[in-house]
Design goal:
There is one protein chain. β5 (96-99), α5 and β6 form a beta-alpha-beta unit. It is built from twelve helices and eight strands. It is an alpha/beta fold. The chain has helices at 16-27, 43-53, 61-65, 80-87, 106-113, 144-155, 167-177, 179-197, 201-222, 226-232, 239-249, 252-274; strands at residues 9-12, 36-39, 56-58, 70-73, 96-99, 118-122, 132-138, 158-162. The protein folds into two domains: 9-164, 3-Layer(aba) Sandwich (Rossmann fold); 179-271, ProC C-terminal domain-like fold (Orthogonal Bundle). The chain starts with 8 loop residues before the first strand and ends with a helix. The chain has an eight-stranded mixed β-sheet with strand order 3-2-1-4-5-6-7-8, sandwiched between helices.
Length: 276
Amino acid sequence: MSALEDTRLAFIGAGVMGEAMIKGLLSQHLVLPEMIVASDPRPERGKELSERYGIATTTNNVEAAGKAQVVVLSIKPQVLATVLAQLRGHIRSEALVLSIIAGARIETIARGLEHRKIVRVMPNTPAQIGQGMSVWMSTSEVEPRQREQAQMILRALGEEIAVDDEDYLDMATALSGTGPAYVFLFMEALIDAGVHLGFSRRVAQQLVLQTLQGSVAYARQSNLHPAELRNQVTSPGGTSAEALYQLEKGGLRTVLSRAIWAAYQKSRYLGGLNNE
């Protein structure tokens, strides 16, 4: 029996990530559409999701959360305080609250809801196609079955890793949460370089996308360290060696490390603002 079987889920906030979770759960047949309700302030958004997935929708957060055994908080950080105040006292005492709100620390959610069964998650955007990376942790009050439920929900988005220190979520924000932005910038730079060489933008994009996709797939399959993989394509005095020399000379590793550190510090700072 699935840990999510006969489990009612409420999504408070039905934006891109909320929809990605709903889509993943339904496409993997982990729950039935009638067991999901999504709340969004825009009636037209609710109608869109209802027609697309056959789920119930509402504009009332309290109505959505009241009967749910799992309440997913997928709202913007800016409305966090308002939504927590709305939901306080309206979530079932035995329910699991799963939050994907950027920067919202567990203690803030627990105080705001007066509820301690909480899982906090740092997902990333490839979750929209089931290829995400989610890092999560739970409070000690979360029961083993609820941890299993959280794990199943996150696996519907891609891969997941559980941690036992909330600081790791700020680290994950900087590395995997923000990571797609680094990859897209690198991708854009490669495509522009291809156009500069003389390729059409369409051909340059095809070359870059397949090269990146193939490289990741090969790295996973080979199970070799990235340095070993790099050495395989770097002949002495060859084109790869010359290109890598210029990248190292330009400080690629240092710039990336500084960028990730800056994102980590920013995550901690924003977390402090959201949790005052």
